[in-house]
Amino acid sequence: MTNKTYKPIPIITKNLVPIIPRNGQEWWRLRSELQKELSVPKNVRSFLMDVDDITNEFVNHLESDIVINMLPELARLNLELTCLLTFDVRLNSFSIEEKHPNSKTSRLIRATETTNSCILPTDQGLQLWRKFETPTYKRLRRAQNFMENVAIDLISEKISYYREDRQQQFSAGYMKRSSLIDEYLKNPNLDLSDIVGVGNDLMLAGVDTTSYTSSFVLYYLGRYPEVQKKVFEEAKKFMKEKYAPIEGDALRTDIPYTRAVLKEVFRLNPISVGIGRILNKDTVFSSYEVPKGTCVVTQNMVACRLEKNFSDPLEFKPERWVNRKNAINPYLVLPFGHGMRACIARRMAEQNILVFILRIVRNYEVKWIGRNDMNVRTVLINKPDQPVNVILKSRND
Ligand code: HEM
Questions:
Q1: Do residues 118 and 112 make contact, with C-beta atoms less than 8 angstroms apart?
Q2: Which structural domain range is residue 117 located in?
């Protein structure tokens, strides 16, 4: 992208309702258009090279042999990845300038955290914000305005490029393929307010979810060195050199143990306690009649920690997913939800986290320095309840 500044496009500030809070017909109209790019495995794999490049850059910018709180660092990685894939823009989140508290990326990261922590308190209880602007509502509104303005700016730049020279637009971009917003702009069934809403939603849903999950991964890798050793051996098999690129086929077939580690993290520390739905008909659960319109939330996280569902349920044992002796109910571990409304970016998120795990473990030995009993604090989603403190020791092999 160039440094040119563009006037925001006025029309896209109207009727902005993103996908996450929509329901019914309006939700499906958007969802059916948006998911094509994100759910087809081939499309998701076409982002792999860019994801690997940025993750490599991220891993190499980390300092070794000092204590680092990885959570703010991971937020930068996932913001950078989300914005590249969504808008084809590099925000240079790992630079010293961007690490300043008033930079654009620092404000964006704060805005996603603020939104995620203000939704629950405004949604529950008396909802006084409907009568007057409560402090929590004000924080939420400001955070959302900021994110929306960033989305409008980035999309305005894109449209100006299209108007100037479409060919040049592609050659000026950073990515080896076109971004999600490029694809959505070509879709006649989406209008500009839909597209800005989506840009905003992807930034909101893409940063904290993936950063918290990666934090839990680091915690378990650090606490269980024998697990980390096996991940390292798996990574080294197809990355003989540290900088060897990660290939799509290898990611699909050659890392069963690393995948099992991620699955076990999702079993013990999913970022969502379960799946929430508003019933569209009267339903009976375990002989209790539940009327239409009731909001029901399944308790997968609790179920995953019960002895009747898993042996040694509180033990971190990726092996249980590798050599499965007993069938495991497929409805227990559902970190991305289930059905038509499941996470739209599941494949992308898994790809990004697997690349992160392989790159960090291939480059460093991760030593856990935080408290040994990391737990979760539920804001809207589950976040680590303490700093994610680690020491990274460079590997020479
Ligand atoms: C570890 C990472 C992630 C986890 C665990 C996760 C989990 C979830 C869950 C549980 C839902 C609700 C599903 C349901 O109700 O059945 C959801 C929805 C959603 N997620 Fe994710 N997510 C992750 C990453 C991402 C990323 C990276 C993005 C975008 C870049 C994203 C975008 C969305 C969107 C837009 C929705 C709403 C879909 C709809 O309402 O139709 N998520 N996610």
A1: no
A2: 14-239+344-394
Average pLDDT, the chain: 90
- Vertex 355: Cα angle to 350 and 359 (nearest 5): 150
Say if ligand 1 is within 6 A of residue 205 CB.
Answer: yes
> Ligand 1 pocket test: which of 261, 266, 299, 336 has the largest number of ligand atoms within 8 Å of its C-beta?
336
Instruction: State the average pLDDT over residues 69-80.
Output: 98
CB distance 349 to ligand 1 below 6 Å: yes
- Whether 335 maps to a domain, the answer reads no
Q: Residue 341: CB within 6 Å of ligand 1?
A: yes
Q: Which of 81, 57, 80, 59 has the alpha carbon at shortest distance from 70?
A: 59
Q: In 10 A of CB 175, how many CB atoms?
A: 19
Does residue 306 sit within a domain? no
User: Ligand 1 atom closest to Cα of 352?
Assistant: 27
What is the distance between the alpha carbons of residues 267 and 262, in angstroms, rounded to a whole number? 9
pLDDT value at residue 141: 93
Q: What angle do CA 47, 344, 268 make, to 5 degrees?
A: 95
For residue 83, what is the domain's CATH number? 1.10.630.10
Amino acid symbol at 50? D
Domain tally, the chain = 1
**How many Å lie between the centroid of ligand 1 and the Cα of residue 20?**
9
Taking residue 66's Cβ as centre, other Cβ atoms within 10 Å add up to 8
State if residue 215 touches ligand 1 by the CB under 6 angstroms criterion. Answer: no
Ligand 1 atom 9 nearest Cα: 336
Domain-located, residue 331: no
Identify the residue whose tokens are 């630079």: 95
* 12 pLDDT higher than 60: no
Contact 87, 179 (CB under 8 A): yes
Q: Give the model's pLDDT for residue 1.
A: 40
Q: Would you call 11 exposed, middle or buried from its count of C-beta atoms within 10 A (0-12, 13-18, 19+)?
A: exposed
The confidence band for 272, taking pLDDT boundaries of 50, 70 and 90, is very high
Among 242, 230, 384, which residue's Cα sits nearest to residue 321?
230
Quote the ligand 1 centre to 210 CA distance (angstroms): 10
Residue owning the nearest CA to atom 20 of ligand 1:
343
Residue 303 maps to a domain: no
